Amino acid sequence: MIATTAAAAGPERVLRGLAVRQVRRGALVVTAVCAGMSALVVVGYHREALDPAALAALARNPAIRTLFGEPVALDQAGGFTVWRTGTVLAVLLGVWAMLAATRITRGEEGAGRWGLLLSGRITLAEAVRQHLGVLAVVPVLVGAATAAAMIAAGVDATGSLLHGTGLAAVGLFFVAVGGVTAQLFASRSAANGAAAAVLVVGLLTRMVGDGVPALAWLRWLSPFGLLALTRPFDSNRGLSVSVLAFAAVLLLALAGRLAARRDVGAAILATAGSRPARTALLGSVPAFAVRRTVRPLAAWSAGIGAYFLLLGLIARSMAEFLTGNPEFATMAAQAGFPALDTVEGYAATLFALLAVPVGVFVAVRLAAVAADENARRLTLLLAAPVTRVRLLAAEAAVAGCAALVLITEAGVAMWAGTAIVHAGLGAGEALAGAWNVVPVVLLCLGAAVLALGWAPRAVAAIGALPAAGGFLWQVLADSVDAPSWIRALSPFAHLAAVPATAPAWVAASVMAGIAAAGVVAGIIGYRRRDLCA
Amino acid sequence: MGVSALRTEHLSKRYGRLLALDDLTLDVAAGEVFGFLGPNGAGKSTTIRLLLGLARPTSGRAWIFDTDAADVAAAHNRLAYVPADVALWPQMTGAEVLDLLARIGPGTDTAYRDELIQRFALDVSKPAGTYSTGNRQKVALIAAFATRAPLLVLDEPTSGLDPLMELQFRQAVGVARDNGQTVFLSSHQLAEVEAVCDRVGILRAGELVEVASVAQLRRLQNTEVAATFTGTPPDLAGIHGVHDLHADGAATVRFTLSGSPAAALRALADADVATIVVREQSLEEIFLAYYGQNAR
């Protein structure tokens, strides 16, 4: 009778239940962060008298527009909050949505867990549709919670609802992007890479579209541009968000169609059948770690390089504008970007941002080691005369070196950008500014190794915490004027503004020491625990 | 016994409240093919994980050729391993995986490896992501047999292989035995164990319940006898060693015999025996006898 009861519930319902279990925790965290941050920034907003001429100048400045998006309705708490948190939260939600989409579809399928599921009455297309359908609810909840939190914090309902709808549409769009790339590629990492490329290209397109008036139309091609075009608390335009939502729905439908056209375990873009062996970098454990890092490193450096080149190109315009409009320098400082009025100060402030992607990169690389262990791919390596410590040391060292490559590349890209516009930033200064974030990246490395030793299921989250969590913490603390000890919890509070000032060697050493302690504790845990192999 | 290839003393492993392995003391001599039997969940894979240093014992110790199993850099120089569930990097081809394992492993006979690739009929130019379970298992088997490591630890290595490939596997074990390699074969394919193993250990619910040669194991067990008579069958009830006696029609009796057959044979000799069939129990029946009543 039990069997009859379960069948009566319907396979779709069971599938939806399964999908809910896989996304509920992340969904709660993303919802809490988006709603909480928006409400806190609204509450912490200080009204400052800004004269209309200065506001108009701000809105026209290409550097400001490139970096922060078009400033709209900054004289209201709602407008300021959208300008301050909109892009950060949209990126956060977008990244989570696309990762969750590939994880619960391609990830589960690739791990072989869908074989059993699909031997029942459910087709592959149905399973993909139900999982994406459940996930699509999350951005709507995030948008609703954000709008509700902003209204509760005391700003205008129309603008809040429009901003919430915009966020929801961005999230939905990236659920759909992840859903489509999961059908196109046979591996979850390739699907993630393709979806991340869409996100980064979308972000850069928005920056260029905002910064170069002749290319303003580009914003219609980017999810982040479409989000900005809604102009909440100003003209409140709904068209662009409708376009974005429509694109998301089309992509979701496409994901279902593509799923119906392929076999279980296969992909639309077939991987090449046979190919000659490529035996480079297979000779030792460190070489093999390099081999697996090269491709992700190339992808990350393309994104980071393009971003910092763009930042370099706008450096001069930004510094000149802020020198001429000091009231905005104060405002930027409140928003967590002090000393933007010199090229060195500008470079220092923006190099601090570099710690976030590079820290996340390190965390993701060590999370890949945890994933290899969990999928039992490490078993054959560890059955060879290879100690765990050697394996972990090789992986951590390669991830660390790859991070240094990314950091150096960002420095060179920023220098190249500033050199093109003759902003007067020396190559040495640019590299010093970039290398200044090394301690924060080391903290990520330490946290990730620690997690690999003691909490292998949470390597990515714990490893990214010092950089991504620390950055959000600092933004929040700055926005609400938190007491200094609260600010001090973020590693970013301890970074000196290199190259504008000398490096904070003591703070850097302390962070490096904490990171080393994390590595040692992680190695001890990794040596002691049972491996999932 | 000479040199031990593999030795454990009071090895135990506890996962929370579950005692997965209880006080295992085992000695596998160098050069022997040892079968490690047990139903699912008996603790076979746990034992192997402990032997390979992938899991840490709760108590007890293990040695690979007198090297502490925890010292994997030394111990793994003398063994090769085939896991029950082979997982490979999906983008790497079979040839690339074999190359990697050969270069970080304990040394590989590449000529023999190429021969094994032919014999197991593996297309090594395909990415591992396209391989079936059996093909992934072949990659690990080829890598292990080609090492010529003195100890081969094989955890249910043929669960995904078809009968033809299983034959190749048995031949490869034979070659390994001829080379003086020790084989530790965990399995529940009893025909395979019977075909290749010298000695077997039987594990039940984490405890080692029997270690014996296959022949000894049979001797310990019952022999089935069926006899037909031209006249009236003799009354065998109460004769020493005779159990489960029952008549099959008027002229046939069946019984199982344990211990010395002398008394039963004397009784049979006095009657007019037309035919007699004496059958040793297969390992499968012996196995079922161990687990039949109180499996786990």
| pLDDT < 50 runs, ≥5 residues of chain B | none
Number of domains of chain A: 2
Number of helices of chain A: 22
Q: Give the termini separation of chain B.
A: 32 Å
Organism (chain B): Micromonospora parastrephiae
Membrane topology (chain B): Peripheral membrane protein
InterPro entries (chain B): AAA+_ATPase, ABC_transporter-like_ATP-bd, ABC_transporter_ATP-binding, P-loop_NTPase
Keywords (chain B): Antibiotic resistance, ATP-binding, Nucleotide-binding, Transport
Structure description:
Chain B: InterPro entries: AAA+_ATPase, ABC_transporter-like_ATP-bd, ABC_transporter_ATP-binding, P-loop_NTPase. Chain B: It is a peripheral membrane protein. Chain B: It is found in: Cell membrane. The complex is a heterodimer of chains A (533) and B (296). With 533 residues, chain A is an all-alpha fold. Chain A has 2 domains: 10-268, no CATH class; 281-533, no CATH class. Chain A contains 22 helices and no strands. The radius of gyration of chain A is 24 Å and the shape is globular. Chain B folds into 2 domains: 4-218, 3-Layer(aba) Sandwich (Rossmann fold); 222-280. In chain B, the strands form 3 sheets. A 6-stranded mixed sheet of chain B has the order 6-7-8-3-9-10, with helices on both faces. Chain B has a 4-stranded antiparallel sheet with strand order 2-1-4-5. A 4-stranded antiparallel sheet of chain B has the order 12-13-11-14, covered by helices on one side. Chain B is elongated, with a radius of gyration of 23 Å. In chain B, 44% of the residues are buried. The chains are: A mainly alpha (533), B alpha/beta (296). The A-B interface holds A 110, 186-187, 271-279, 282-285, 288, 292, 372, 375-377, 379-388, 390, 528-531, 533 and B 49, 52-56, 72-77, 79-81, 83, 85-91, 93, 95-97, 99-101, 103-106, 123-127, 129-130, 140, 143, 153.
